[in-house]
Amino acid sequence: MGRGEAIRRGVAERGLVHAMSAHNPLSALLAEEAGFDAIWASGFELSAAYGVPDNSLLSHTQHLEMTRAIAERVGVPVIADLDTGHGNAINVQHVVGACERAGVGAVVIEDKRFPKDTSLLEGGRQELVSTAEFQGKIEAACAVRQDRSLVVVARTEALIAGLGQGEALARARAYVQAGADMILVHSKQRTAGEVLEFVAAWDGSVPIVLVPTAYPSLTEAAMKATGRIGLVIYGNHAIRAAVTAMRQVFRQIGQDGGIAAADAGIVPVEEIFRLQDVPGMKAREARFLR
Q: Residue 283: is it exposed, middle or buried by C-beta count within 10 angstroms (0-12/13-18/19+)?
């Protein structure tokens, strides 16, 4: 079975697939254990983990190495965040081919210009390439894949750029014509009204993908009820949770001048050993070491 088949089957059978963000294999393992259907190998989270802005500073190689490391450690599909595709349509073919060989089940490419600003940044540069240019990128991505189950998601930032529903719908339709398997529409509005208006007007044949970071009150039940949303991505909750927890523990240790109280509220070292598969390693040592 192809890597993307689990995503396609999940949409067909359950109506909605839910993916959790990750920035390394450990966060991906925790998301898988929590029951999420897929892992979002988030460019935003990876940039944050490096301590740099999410504006195309990290290289394709840095993204690819972490995405491959995640795919090697989890059994659920990995969705690769390819930002703008790291260049033109030829660059897109290179990175999509590399991601497919790395074991991903889906790729997401957005229609902003390179270098990009992250979508929810107040005052960020949200410049889009032409519809025709982005159609070429989607066609290139579809043409290079060897596994026909690989899901190619076209992400339009028309609403983020303030271009309105008409432009967002026109671009989405054009991207489906170019071969996109799903359409991700993004919004920075604090309520779900803008994306739900898009969903209600959507007359395309492919499912919609949402990333409800800015409008957290929209539930999965409400998404499923539309009958048009096939994938929800929780785009940055792993890194935000990590920062929250680390700040709390670091602050307590600093205030206490020791680790006794902090240790009581965090997992034991043995749990980290389990996540690292140390028991499996020791079992293999017992079998193979002479």
A: exposed
Cα distance between residue 147 and residue 13, in whole Å: 21
| SS3 of residue 77 by DSSP | coil
What are the residue numbers of the active site?
A: 54
pLDDT at 107 over 80: yes
Reply yes or no on whether the pLDDT at 242 is more than 70.
yes
For the record, the structure tokens of 138 come out as 């989607």
Share of the chain above pLDDT 70, in %: 98
Per-residue DSSP letters for 273-288? HHHTTHHHHHHHHHHH
Claim to verify: residue 132 and residue 266 sit in the same structural domain: no
Same domain, 76 and 111: yes
> How many residues are there in the chain?
290
Per-residue pLDDT reduced to its tens digit, 187-207: 999 999 999 999 999 999 999
10, two tokens = 């999940």
User: Are residue 166 and residue 267 in the same domain, yes or no?
Assistant: no
Both 155 and 269 in one domain: the answer is: no
